[in-house]
Amino acid sequence: MTEAPGDEAPQDAQSRLEAANQRQLELLRRVVELTRDRDRLTVKANRQAEEIGSLRRTLDATRRHLLVTDVVRLAQWEWDIASGSVFLSARWEEMIGAAAENNRWPLRDLLARVHPDDVPAVRQALDDALGGKADRYSVEHRVAAADGWIWIESIGMVTERDADGKALRLTGFNSDITARRRMHDEIEQARAQAEASSRAKSEFLANMSHEVRTPLNAVLGLTRLLHQSPLNDEQRQHLELIDNSAASLLALLNDILDLSKIEAGKLVFELIRFDIARWVREAVALHKLAAEKKGLQLEVDVSDDVPWKVAGDPGRLRQVISNLVSNAVKFTEAGRISVSARLAPQQSDLRRDQLRMLFVVRDTGVGVPADKQQQIFEAFTQEDASTTRRFGGTGLGLAICARLVSMMGGEIQLTSRPREGSTFRFTAVFEQAADEMSVLTEPAPLEAVATRGLNVLLAEDHAVNELLMRKLLAEMGCTFNVARNGEEAVRHWKTRQFDLVLMDVQMPVLSGFDATARIRAMEAAEPDRGRTPIVALTAHAMAGDREKCLAAGMDAYVSKPVSPALLSQAIHDAMRGATATGAPREFLLDTDFGPWPGSAPGASPAASGSDPSLPIDMQQLLQTMGGDWDAVRQLAATMRADMAFRRPAIQHAIAGGDSKAAQEQVHALKGALSTIGALQGAKMAKDVEASLRRDDWAGAQRSFGRMEPELERVDTALTQMIEGDEA
After folding, report:
1. Are the beta carbons of 676 and 639 closer than 8 angstroms?
2. Which pLDDT band, with edges at 50, 70 and 90, does 592 fall under?
3. d(C-alpha 360, C-alpha 480), whole Å
4. How far is residue 188's CA from residue 191's CA, in Å, rounded to a whole number?
5. What is the per-residue pLDDT across 564-584, written as a single tens digit (0 to 9) for each?
6. Nearest CA to 324 among 179, 425, 440, 192?
């Protein structure tokens, strides 16, 4: 008997329904999972699409970059540091005419192609780039190519580093710069040739000016001697014409010499402390007589803000002002000329120890058209050709002024209108003078310094210098005792009371520094004795000498050859400051032999008309000896005897390698030559001394060999002094 279907159908249906529901849930879960997977894949696909797009853009940019590098003929390279191989593009093969397998070169092979002289620079550039000292590798060097050496410029940078920052890869480009370097070398060669030509021209002008100066000085001297003889009016007029013409020619030679020195780069500026207001007034005063003859008013105005002492080259400043005032007098027929000096408004661009001065020269003369104002600062240029015929001159003065102003750190400008006058403005930069340094002013006459009756101890070991100092001290009314070495000077000082000591710095037995130190030590032990003023006498002002003077306790400092004016100034300053700190006052630099009696402020013998081509400056020597020819002859005889002793002594010391003896003898000879005005010989002796200080015996031998002919010339001149007479 069968069961009724209605009894089991609900259970089966329920089971099937539950199974169906379960399958639906599984399907739903699967759908959810697939949806999530689809979303993840979609995001990943989008990201990969963006990366592919970026890579495509990078690839396109790289292709364009490589195209550009190919056009500009650059060789791309990449150095895999770990493997030591360098990939170089095909352009490299074209550059050097050699190839490597797969365009990969061992680094050692590439370095082997670098010019030996350039290897250090290449290695240094690589080390700096790899070590992080430089942000890129950059160097120019030569490389061996098929046709010889070529120049390349190699530029690159580190493009990959590891986690520790160590460089893994260096990438860059090489470019062939051979043509550029060749052009650069040709330009440099052309510049060098042009500069050499300019120097040769300037040296020729300088030499010719010296050669012409010798007979010209004779013309001037003989003309002025003839002026002292009986002459009729016509003869005197002819002589005045000769004298004026010779003076004009001498002025032209001086201008040519200055210009040639400037162009040859041989014009030396000195650093001297001086009273700027006084030097400006003195420069203008030189033209007062010429202005008065034309009925012109000549005025000077120095502002109150101008410091009374600065450091610079007063001679060059005076040269510029004098030239501008001379031109103003020349080109002004009526009216006035004014000169002013004041601090320039602009000072902020200078160092704290510098100051800028503004100088203005105004006149009411003929003026200069606007289109000609720049040209007048060029050499041999004037406003027009008629200017030379009407007023004279060569057009060198303003060219020299412009160059001198530039060398003083300033600028020169002209404002002018025809028939209304001209205004020249120029600036110059000076240093502020230290408080402890003396100021170089117009040397005071001997009578202005109370030296008469002073009891002086002169410590001087050289016969020529002793004779000169004896002469000067006698003329100054001083009594004196002489010590010929430092030990003797100390002994004299201990036994007698002196008002002043003139102490030579370099002496045998005991130097001037040591002798001064001993005197100061004894003064400290005997305070009741007081302090004796000490003036250092030295043939040079080497670096460190001033510090030695401070340490030794000297009161003043003056270089040889000693002129009467500067000696009196040194004595005055030493005695005034003897009760102070004892800081030495520096009067002269090594290259400046100082103003001589009767010359303008700061004028050197060369500037005052003497001939530097002569072995001895007779004008300087005669003035130094007070015009006493008997004293000059005595000095000449003493100098000849001294030279006869020292020349073989120097030769023997140099040949035997005796540095101390050689330096002592050469130094003494140098000082004596300076004293008698044999400046060229003194300069040569300085060269010998410099070689000896460096232990350059071969150089000392050569320098003394070059000096010997000059010493023969000096000896001949001394003989002529002894045998000749004043006429």
Report:
1. yes
2. very low
3. 50
4. 5
5. 667 777 787 777 655 444 444
6. 425
Q: Which residues pair with 272 in a beta bridge?
A: 312
- Collect all residues with Cβ–Cβ distance below 8 Å to 240 and sequence separation of at least 6: none
C-beta neighbour count of 212 within 10 angstroms: 15
**Phi/psi of residue 487, nearest 5 degrees:** -65, -40
Residue range 396-422, pLDDT digits in tens: 678 888 888 998 999 999 998 888 889
Q: Is the dihedral of CA 81, 83, 88, 93 positive or negative?
A: positive
Q: Are 154 and 174 in contact (CB under 8 A)?
A: yes
Q: Which two tokens stand for residue 694?
A: 């460096």
- 98 or 266: which carries more pLDDT confidence? 98
In percent, the amount of the chain with pLDDT more than 70 equals 76
Is residue 343 pLDDT above 90, yes or no?
A: yes
- Written as six digits, the tokens of 392 are 């004279």
Q: State the pLDDT at residue 384.
A: 47
492 burial via Cβ count (<10 Å: 0-12, 13-18, 19+): middle
For residue 301, what pLDDT is reported? 93
CA distance 599 to 605: 8
Give the tokens for residue 492.
Answer: 């004299």
Pair 523, 479: CB distance under 8 Å: no
For residues 644 and 647, give the distance between their C-alpha atoms in angstroms, rounded to a whole number: 6
Q: End-to-end distance of the chain based on CA atoms, in angstroms?
A: 182
Q: Is the pLDDT of residue 447 over 60?
A: no
Residues 329-342, buried b or exposed e (16+ Cβ, 10 A)?
Answer: bbbbeeeebbbbbe
Residue 637 half-sphere exposure toward CB, CA atoms < 13 A: 8
Contact 83, 108 (CB under 8 A): no
- pLDDT category at 463 given cuts 50, 70, 90 is confident
> Measured between alpha carbons, how far is 39 from 49 in angstroms, rounded to an integer?
15
Name, of 579-593, 601-615, 652-666, the range with top average pLDDT: 652-666
Count CA atoms closer than 13 A to 667's CA, side-chain side.
Answer: 20
Which residues are CB-contacts of 656 (< 8 A; sequence separation ≥ 6)?
Answer: none
Which residues fall within 8 angstroms of residue 151, CB to CB, at 6 or more apart? 140, 141, 142, 143, 176, 177, 178, 180, 181
Residue 438, class by beta-carbon neighbours within 10 Å (0-12 exposed, 13-18 middle, 19+ buried)? buried
**Residue 247 contacts residue 219 (beta carbons within 8 Å):** no
Is the pLDDT score of 51 beyond 60?
yes
**Burial class of residue 702 (count of CB atoms within 10 Å of its CB; 0-12, 13-18, 19+):** middle
pLDDT of residue 218: 63
The contacts of residue 476 (CB under 8 Å, 6+ apart) are: 446, 449, 451, 452, 454, 564, 567, 568
* Residue 579 C-alpha from the chain's centroid: 37
